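Researcher: Next entry in the queue.
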Amino acid sequence: MAGRIDARLEELGITLPEAAAPVANYVGWVKSGNLVFVSGQVTVEGGEFKYVGKLGREFSVEEGQAAARLCAINLLAQLKQACDGDLDRVTRVVKLGNFVNCTDEFADQPKVANGASDLMVEVFGDAGKHARFAVGTNVLPLNVAVEVDGVFEVS
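Model: Structure for this entry, 155 residues:
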């Protein structure tokens, strides 16, 4: 039987992928006490890298928001694995870290980060409201446009 959060994801038309396996010497998530720290997730969908390039050159703010949303969906896939398949165990989205691959002139990183932040609130309601940061960088792994990591409280 699907839980409350699984039902909400279905209502939003979101199917979580399998949690991606790490590609280097790290793990996808670590649980410490009641916190789950999820490693940075990038713009992978169906095994393919999407949104490869820079905000302010190849991508608009709106496309950056879609890229951040995709990262957040991948975060949720990792989180679901950390919660033994039960996202109803999530009591709070604590913090999201948003990294935006952008040109030197691009200054809308917070708007891009809203793609991930908005999804967390859509999925978890008030428990999805979180602290965050949004920074620009000159490059991200494989030149993807956005990477997002997160900290979650679970029961």
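Model: The first helix runs from residue 4 to 11.
Researcher: Noted, moving on.
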